[in-house]
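Postdoc handover notes: sequence design on the structure in folder B. Input tokens:
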């Protein structure tokens, strides 16, 4: 008979001894109820500038100083020429929906109340693609090729998420920031 990998821990209300009570992400609150925090990005040396700019309502991405290729996600080496030389540059925040999916099941307990929710790949006019959410419209209204612009959702003092909302059609050449 098949069984899932590893034992499942029922919520014990904090009454059963065990290592999981000492873990910082312990789901047992001691009240008999599960408390689940929303998963947030880890901020480190490689991506700190991205999150700082988002917190300030701007979208900045890494660009290779050698060949000009955008680096997203941020990386130590260029994906094109392997150069370590990079600069941070402001981008327009405008793009189009490249792909998307609407989830009707929560694959993380923190998203249970948000079902159905969308996850989209947005291609910026500058070229890089970001994984995010489309906001300010119904899931049924999202389509591939939909013009969108970045909006910023503060979540904590340190993390502001970059999301996208639909916009009227705009001239692609006018949207690029140099």
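Designed sequence:
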């Amino acid at each position: 008979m098949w069984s899932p990998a590893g034992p499942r821990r029922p919520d014990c209300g904090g009454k059963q001894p065990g290592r999981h009570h000492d873990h910082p992400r312990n789901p047992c609150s001691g009240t008999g109820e599960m408390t689940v925090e929303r998963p947030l990005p880890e901020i480190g040396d490689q991506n700190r500038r991205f999150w700082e700019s988002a917190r300030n309502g701007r979208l900045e991405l890494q660009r290779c100083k050698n060949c000009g290729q955008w680096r997203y996600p941020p990386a130590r080496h260029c994906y094109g020429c392997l150069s370590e030389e990079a600069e941070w540059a402001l981008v327009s925040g405008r793009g189009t929906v490249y792909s998307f999916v609407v989830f009707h099941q929560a694959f993380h307990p923190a998203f249970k109340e948000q079902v159905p929710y969308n996850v989209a790949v947005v291609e910026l006019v500058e070229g890089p693609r970001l994984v995010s959410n489309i906001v300010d419209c119904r899931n049924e209204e999202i389509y591939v090729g939909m013009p969108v612009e970045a909006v910023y959702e503060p979540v904590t003092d340190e993390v502001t998420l970059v999301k996208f909302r639909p916009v009227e059609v705009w001239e692609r050449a006018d949207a690029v920031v140099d």
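Context for whoever picks this up: Confidence is low (pLDDT under 50) at residues 1-23. Don't rerun without checking with the PI first.
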